[in-house]
Design brief:
Blueprint lengths: L6 H9 L7 H12 L5 E2 L10 E3 L4 E6 L18 H24 L3 E6 L8 H13 L4
Parallel strand pairs: 3-4
Antiparallel strand pairs: 1-2, 2-3
């Protein structure tokens, strides 16, 4: 498939993609805050700068975009064009995610991954229950 955008248009589009404060991350933050949990955002002192850090619970939540982090769902399908670029890029993201989670666990942190496809409105009740179970486990 041929790219229909010019180089400058593609560059502008790629620049507009956010790494923080994405819609899925904001939904998870709103859920956690609404349930009364307080957290620190993107703590650079921890491996991988987790999206939500709950220091008193020694727990972190990472919110991953399905496409960028290689989730095997409909949203996370790999592109069919420019495979020489996209396949290694997404593979590196997945490898980095695994390394970060292992490093956090070695430091005694509990890690939960929430995928973008789990933050759609129809699945928010289930996600809320999952977050509560995760954060309340071993919290004392």
């Amino acid at each position: 498939m041929v790219d229909t955008l010019s180089i400058s248009q593609r560059s502008a589009l790629m620049r507009s993609i956010r790494a923080k404060d994405t819609a899925p991350e904001m939904r998870v933050r709103q859920l956690a805050h609404g349930m009364g949990y307080r957290y620190v955002l993107h703590d650079k002192r921890l491996p991988g700068s987790p999206d939500l850090v709950f220091p008193s619970r020694k727990a972190v939540i990472q919110v991953h975009g399905c496409y960028w982090h290689g989730h095997e769902c409909r949203v996370g399908r790999r592109p069919k064009s420019n495979l020489a670029y996209w396949t290694p890029k997404i593979d590196r993201n997945v490898e980095r995610d695994v390394r970060s989670a292992k490093a956090l666990r070695r430091l005694g942190w509990r890690v939960m991954v929430v995928w973008e496809c789990q933050t759609v409105p129809a699945k928010l009740d289930a996600l809320q229950r999952r977050i509560r179970r995760f954060l309340d486990r071993d919290a004392m």
